[in-house]
Amino acid sequence: MPGNRHVRILDDELISRLKIRTAQHERSAEAEHREILPQALANEGGAVFDDLAAELRKLTASRKHTPSEALLREDRDER
Question: What is the pLDDT of residue 49?
Fold first, then answer.
């Protein structure tokens, strides 16, 4: 569903940089904002987590892993 968002109180330097970027891409300010937001949010969410999890699995692949149920059983038996 389309919607409108308004941003208030932007830093003067940021506004200036946005104007330069808008001119470089020969777009309206609104069109430039529509381009920037999806790019900024593209890496949010699961994809980043999945990449980090894969990296962690790679780093710990050579380590011995104890199943969590074994650790829980050991803890319960100690009580």
Answer: 83
Residue 21 near residue 32 (C-beta atoms within 8 A):
yes
**Whats the size of the chain, residue-wise?**
79
How is the chain split into domains, by residue range?
A: 1-61
CA distance 1 to 67: 45
Residue 38 vs residues 14, 33, 75: alpha-carbon distances, Å: 18, 9, 47
| Angle, alpha carbons 16-18-23 (nearest 5°) | 100
Given this model, what pLDDT does residue 77 score? 93
Q: Which amino acid would we find at residue 68?
A: S
Interval 7-62: pLDDT, tens: 899 999 999 999 999 999 999 999 999 999 998 888 666 667 888 899 999 999 99
Q: What are phi and psi of 59, to 5 degrees?
A: -70, -30
